[in-house]
Fold these 2 entries.
Entry 1:
Amino acid sequence: MTAGGSTDGPLAWNVARLLADEPGAERLREVSGVTIDLGEDLRLAGPIEGRVRLVRTNRGILAAADLRTALDLACSRCLRDVVYSVEVRLQEEYLPSLDLATGRPLPTDDEPDVARLTDHHELDLETPVREAIQLSEPIAPLCRPDCPGLCVVCGLRLDGGAHDHPDDDIDPRLEALRGFRADDA
Ligand SMILES: [Zn+2]
Ligand SMILES: [Zn+2]
């Protein structure tokens, strides 16, 4: 997946040679089988796939990512596992942190918010990709749009069809099952 030198991260590329090219020059980088850590509350259901176009601009490198992956979520109504597809399309310009000719640090104080290449001329997309994936997480994922959820009396899933029981007649075995499912989810 990587080319043009060793890099630190699964979504990082060394762009030293592209920086030496004329503005408008570009490289395509395939992204395949990449996984990143999304923190404690969120998990990928599959690898990140796609490609990233790296374009030399007047000031630095523009990265245009076209990626897809999936999140491992739970239905907000019935707690069933949901694999949620995510597309990540982002563009971000990275400016050098070192002067290419002299190797000296460039002043960055006047533009503290722009993305920067590393001291080794690496462009690392992991953070913006992580943030884009985190932002794509739905507030209330559903296993299907009309998921009927759980029975409020016994906790069983309602999509097996209607079932009857008198109010307050909670079978202790079902109560135990409900606890088991909550742990399992
Ligand atoms: Zn559901
Ligand atoms: Zn019930």
Entry 2:
Amino acid sequence: MEMAQLGPGQRSAALEAMAATEHQVVVVGGGVVGAGIALDAATRGLTVGLVEARDFAAGTSSRSSKLIHGGLRYLEQLNFGLVREALTERSLLLRGIAPHLVRPVSFIFPLTHRVWERAYVGAGVGLYDTLALSLGQPRGLPAHRHLTRRGALRLAPALRRTAFTGAVQYWDAQVDDARFVLTLVRTAATYGAQVASRAQVVGFLREGARVTGVRVRDLETGAELAIRAQQVVNATGVWTDDIQALVGRIHSSAGIITRTPVSVLFVIPWGRHWIIGTTDTDWSLDKADPAASRADIDYLLGRVNAVLAVPLTHDDVEGVYAGLRPLLSGESDVTSRLSREHMVAQPVPGLVMIAGGKYTTYRVMARDAVDAVAHSLDGKVPPSCTDAVPLAGADGYPALWNSRARLAAASRLHVARIEHLLRRFGSLAEEVLALIGSRADLGRPISGADDYLRAEVVYGCTHEGARHLDDVLARRTHVSIETADRGVSAAPEAAELMAGALGWDADQTGREIEYYRKHIDAERASQAMDSDRAADAIRLGAPEIVPAADSVR
Ligand SMILES: Cc1cc2nc3c(=O)[nH]c(=O)nc-3n(C[C@H](O)[C@H](O)[C@H](O)COP(=O)(O)OP(=O)(O)OC[C@H]3O[C@@H](n4cnc5c(N)ncnc54)[C@H](O)[C@@H]3O)c2cc1C
């Protein structure tokens, strides 16, 4: 097999190739880990790209102690698993993978205490050697041996004679760390990986919530290119967090729940965003649009930062919303301690009242309320059957989910878009896709809110009862809390689409955008206020857009 040459033309050819076709894997970071990943993937037959911001191995991988070792230290900590794993690798590298780059090296351990230290160190390195042998592979290194002071001085005349009484000699391996990485990269390229140094990842490509590639700056030319990938691997060592910060600040594959003095704090995954809450504070002001104050935000940031490795700041807050729990209250209770159970009552004949409960138990609440109604009705009412009634979009959903690749091909949308639609509309996603089929422009993302497709705005109006811009940006979609500008830049395009669907004239369209903008301005201003009252006052300064203009009735 002829080895790949990383010559003058190779780098730009690799970048061009990466930009031209979607690769199965793109690895970010050309240290030993990234280069190793590129080789591993390429030798499994995957199409691979590797981009390194500086030179290959310019990071930690050229600044190590250059040892390939089992780690005597871990042995002392009785971490046998780690030592065994490393010794296996040492043996593989020494004997087959890179005997030219990984070489035996011996160490002398000078002893100052004649008896116990020789026994302790001797037992340690003895175990080290035995472990290596027990792996079933030839060790590739001589065994340790005990030395007298004179013997040690023969090997290391540089040692001060009076500084030790004897020594133990053992063997490990060493590597030219930078060359090793370069060799890994070259070998990966030989197996087909496209590799480029001085190519810095400056952002991610996305289709909805999914990462679909990286934006790379060619540091030689200053050009920026989009490199598409089915999977991106972040192997940037000490820069890992910086790269992750380009995707989002909280790195967790699960939500987080912690205790607070009054309740619990949830950190809940929401697509590529996170919802952090709740404050569980009292609110006695406007019920329609409760406002979050700066104090509320500070409280939540304080609470969540107590458990996060990299603290969040106000700049990380993309959106904020506030809601009131319908709790069964006693006069002086703290809200989080109030009952979240529900209660059905008939205070006067003809009236059923239901209170308390929570989202999760809505169906039980509904059943109990209707039971109460049924009780008062003449004639027999059958029992609730909502436990067996799938909601709109539920029927056929699993089968459609399994067909998402076919739907993607048929609609010419990325499969991530299909997943997004299926997760939002269930099997009714087919109706949204039909809209796109009849009007190709609706298949484009909304500029300023590109997690969502234009069709979703129209569908919101034609099928989901949206009447105003806020309906679409805050509830049919969640653009208002998922974009850094809270949907302000997406508002004009969304309003245009709504105008077409709802028959708005230019006046109404302008009014909708204006109201939305004011609403967001007020929301932002209220969140700078320290008290609920001040926040509420500002929030109320931006009324909702009702009544609508005649054209939309
Ligand atoms: C002092 C020291 C001694 C050590 N000694 C040993 C030892 O003897 N034996 C041992 O086994 N281990 C040793 N280690 C550990 C070992 O060196 C590291 O674990 C290993 O090198 C890490 O490799 P890496 O590929 O993860 O990171 P790195 O080598 O740092 O590679 C990450 C790469 O990502 C690149 N990058 C960053 N941002 C971007 C971006 N935006 N776009 C593209 N690329 C980017 C960087 O330029 C860098 O080249 C030592 C570590 C240190 C610090």
